[in-house]
Amino acid sequence: MANAPSIHEQEWAGLLARIAVGDQSALSELYDASSAKVFGLAMKILGDRAAAEETTLDVYTQVWRRIATYDAKRGTPGSWLMTLAKHRAIDRFRSSYLERGRQVPLDEAAELPGREDTPEQYSAGLERQRLVQDALATLSVEQRQAVALAYYWGLSQSEIADQLKLPLGTVKTRMRLGMIKLREVLAPHGEGLLS
Known about the structure:
Blueprint: H1 4-20, H2 24-46, H3 49-66, H4 77-102, H5 106-111, H6 119-137, H7 141-151, H8 157-164, H9 168-186
Helix pairs in contact: 1-2, 2-3, 2-4, 3-4, 6-9, 7-9, 8-9
């Protein structure tokens, strides 16, 4: 039973090789063999069947279009598919989240920020936000991009490296230097801004 995953991976590698030369039936076979796993991951992230189904189809469209980006040295066919599925599902989740935010009724939107805060707490929060934005502006574009992807979008350093097509060490260095600079800039304004 322990060999079952490696057998699947070998079959999927063969299907990817056929897809790479334009064999559409191989894409159909790969879909039949692996779409349940891709759908399961998309469903787990999105929590919506229709969105998970669309994301699953998007993944296989991406496999067809981006087969040249698959590198067996970097991972198995299954891990590549799951990475594609994860990124597509997260992208869809983020875009739907932003869209839902745009559709909040005006009377609800007016209540959202600082609903439980006193005017002083709300004002202090705005001031902290301004200080952090000013501090971020002192970073290089590369550092700011890495920090923003980590803290605003919740990506891991590995995911940032994949998204930016950079070595992981480069991303780690940018993050470290960016955080050092932010600490220096924000230190005079008190503790808690970077925690």
